[in-house]
Amino acid sequence: MKSLSDKHSNMTTFASLNSEEYIRCLGPNAKNEDFAPLASTSDAKFHTGIGGVNYICQTGDGKVEFIFFDSHVLAYVNSALGYPAYYPIQPVEIKKPTRAVLMDLDGTSVRSEGFWIWIIQMTTASLLDKPEFELSDEDLPFVSGHSVSEHLQYCIDKYCPDKTIEQARDYYFEHTHREMNEIMNGRGRTDAFVPTPGLKNFLCELKSRKIKIGLVTSGLYEKAWPEIVSAFKTLNMPDPKEFYDAIITAGFPLRKGSVGTLGELSPKPHPWLYAEVARVGLGIEPQNNTQVIGIEDSSAGVCAIRLANFPVVGLAGGNIAQSGTLGLCHHHCNDLNQILKIIGD
């Protein structure tokens, strides 16, 4: 069966398609069972069979919903903070030669997700005044890959609805600053920031092929920058600012007494970090998106890449399968060496 982008390149015949063919628009390996069908979007603005809507489905974690019309597809991103958004989504495929690779930080470049989940857990424990509190396995897709505030709002809604996001952020930064200071002084967790196996070879091989590299993270600068610096020092690599062609983070926290930047409402699974690092940071125009590959290990990141209309390569070890976003991936690899083979010469 041809891909939807080949078979229906102008996307004008959706009404005649079955649900399996709709799903194939989201990814060449997508299957019906990868997504849950919906009678309507969660905001009740669109309903299947009404107003030109032919089909609606959502990712397994419920974070992103897809609405199929005769001529186009919309993606609806929910927001724990009350600011959802709709984005147009197009079929996309990988075309050679690869001009750029966009690469996530936490879990993809550096194994640090466990550390930051631990910080969220300690924050929730502080809110509850229960030092023994632990997150459950079912919480993991919702406390990694998104913005700090999204993670904290999830925990508040589930465990301590009488608390505020402002209280949670105060505890979060208190724990973060303490633990980061301990790490920088050689007293903290030694397993906090570990380079992903094969990272140095992967990055250097991309450089040798003259493929541009963009580093993308939903993490705030103050937590993301020490991670990559630590990883590069461990690998005996040069200054990351000089090595990468572009680096983008969620910026600086918006707190009283300091000047913040946009980053808590717009990061993954929204497409803006990936779109900006490619278009502004690397100079890749939208018509060349098929020659860009985004690499992610988290559901939020996979959605962000796909909503930015780039092909997605998932990396094992994160929550992609667990969160029901495997169908958005063009490939899913066990390690970085496998991804090099996909990129080719």
From TrEMBL:
InterPro entries: HAD-like_sf, HAD_2, HAD_sf, PGP-like_dom2
Record has Nuclease as a keyword: no
UniProt cross-references to SUPFAM superfamilies, sorted A to Z: HAD-like
Keywords associated with the record: Hydrolase
An example Gene Ontology molecular-function term: hydrolase activity
Gene3D superfamilies membership: HAD superfamily/HAD-like, Putative phosphatase, domain 2
Recorded superkingdom: Bacteria
Annotated transmembrane regions: none
Protein name: Beta-phosphoglucomutase family hydrolase
Gene source species: Anaerohalosphaera lusitana
